[in-house]
Specification:
Blueprint: H1 12-28, H2 32-45, H3 50-62, H4 66-79, H5 84-96, H6 100-113, H7 118-130, H8 134-145, H9 152-164, H10 170-186, H11 191-204, H12 208-221, H13 226-234, H14 246-256, H15 260-267, H16 272-281, E1 291-296, H17 304-307, E2 311-318, H18 321-328, E3 335-338, H19 341-346, E4 352-357, H20 368-377, E5 378-390, E6 398-400, E7 406-408, H21 410-420, E8 423-435, E9 438-448
Length: 449
């Protein structure tokens, strides 16, 4: 083989190697124009080079040219059938196009070609879940944990998958618990995220004492963490707080915000906004855009589009910045404000004609203060619609469940509405959502000032 001698001109192969490194460096830096120009030149010289074809195919995907990307990646695979990265990138394009059967096939090939490629196993598990192949997805998560240099992230991913799995069994939950305990050893700095999942898994197993012990260990690692304190109280390890703390609620929903709509609506069948609007439609004047409306605890804005026909001005208030950012994307609110709900209502006397609060009172114990503040924020003749979770009791009572949410008896809700000054028009039982394959029963109340 000929080699370049000192002082001689670089060989064509050396020049191509330099050009490839420059294109790759530009690609990694996000300079896609420079990278694409480099890949195009290289392909003129090396039409079937699988390395260049793979990276060029990935770049086309990043630029939204998925058909071209798939064609380049297929050429790379024809040239090198066991090119794991090309199979993986094909899978990524099919996922982006919601072609999950094709994505599963490509990612399965990537796993077979490179059994230690962590990202391929993780992506394969996610696609299997999309296809509803829960058992295969669980096996794929377990395969990821068996790889060398297993990470805490893989252990957490398995537990999160189990908690999403609709057909989970106690054995699956035990698998999640074991995985989370491994994660605490692998990455003790992740104690908050891991402990939250561990406590929930232990609760679902009915292991209350173990859940309390996990809360205490969490607090030992993160003293005064508001979510750890709330979890400890909800499992009976500390006195019940009058309501969930601002720190706990904002942290909880900031974490939920990216996947909140998918989790709540698609996985849990959440229908409280629609049921509230149905009840209000039967009582309010026909929607004509004449009311000042407050979406109290608006979250990602699921109620917003339903309230818009009544509103001349629609305001959303929430304590979570992450939730408000998602609500902003809906482009239905004239104003979005970050605040604790009771304080906000108290600061806005007689500002609203209609206040709607879907599944927000589940973070309050005694409802007297927040309902009194709602009365204060409504104009005379104004309307209030709320939902809360039902406590089966004939007494005026409320409780904090191990889920971390409060529940209220019908008598408590009716009494606190009346004490605030409202005329109670209806309080109906209904199913708010399904959780762990069990319907969650709630109360829907409509009242008027």
């Amino acid at each position: 083989m000929a080699t370049s001698q000192p002082g001689s001109a670089p060989s064509a192969a050396m020049l191509r190697a330099v050009l490839l490194q420059q294109a790759l460096a530009a690609h990694r830096a996000g300079d896609l124009d420079t990278a694409e120009a480099g890949y195009a030149v290289l392909l003129e010289q090396l039409a079937d080079d699988p390395l260049v074809l793979n990276f060029y195919g990935l770049l086309c995907h990043q630029r939204g040219r998925n058909a071209q990307g798939l064609e380049l990646l297929q050429r790379a695979i024809q040239r090198m059938p066991r090119h794991a990265e090309a199979h993986f990138n094909r899978g990524a394009i099919h996922v982006a196009q919601k072609e999950f059967v094709l994505a599963e096939q490509a990612l399965r090939q990537a796993c077979a070609c490179a059994p230690a490629l962590h990202k391929a196993h993780a992506a394969h598990a996610a696609v299997l879940e999309k296809l509803g192949r829960w058992g295969d997805a669980h096996t794929s998560h377990r395969a990821l944990l068996a790889l060398p240099q297993v990470s805490a992230q893989a252990s957490v991913a398995l537990a999160e998958f189990v908690l999403r799995r609709p057909d989970r069994t106690p054995a699956h939950l035990q698998d999640a618990v074991q995985s989370l305990r491994s994660a605490l050893v692998l990455e003790p700095m992740e104690i908050g995220r891991v402990s939250r999942l561990l406590v929930r898994s232990l609760h679902l197993l009915g292991q209350t004492e173990e859940a309390i012990t996990a809360c205490q260990a969490w607090l030992a690692g993160e003293p005064n963490n508001p979510s750890a304190l709330h979890a400890l109280a909800s499992h009976g390890g500390a006195p019940l707080p009058a309501r969930a703390s601002d720190g706990h609620v904002s942290a909880l929903f900031d974490a939920y915000a990216p996947d909140f709509d998918t989790m709540l609506v698609q996985r849990l069948g959440y229908v409280a906004p629609q049921l509230l609007i149905q009840a209000l439609t039967a009582l309010l004047p026909a929607p004509r855009g004449a009311l000042d409306v407050l979406d109290a605890g608006c979250g990602t804005g699921l109620c917003g589009p339903l309230l818009q026909p009544w509103a001349r001005h629609l305001t959303g208030v929430d304590i979570s910045a992450g939730m408000l950012a998602r609500a902003q994307d809906r482009s239905v609110y004239q104003a979005l404000e970050r605040s604790e709900l009771t304080a906000y209502l108290q600061a806005n006397a007689q500002r609203f004609d209609l206040i709607v609060s879907a599944d927000v009172l589940i973070y309050f114990g005694d409802l007297g203060p927040v309902l009194g503040a709602a009365y204060h924020a409504l104009r005379p003749g104004g309307w209030l619609g709320v939902t809360t979770e039902l406590l089966e009791s004939g007494n005026d009572a409320w409780d904090l469940r191990p889920t971390g949410r409060y529940c209220h008896s019908r008598t408590h809700l009716q009494n606190r509405l009346a004490a605030a000054g409202f005329t109670v028009l209806q309080t109906d039982e209904l199913t708010l959502r399904t959780e762990a394959n069990v319907p969650v029963t709630g109360l829907l109340a409509v009242a008027r000032r």
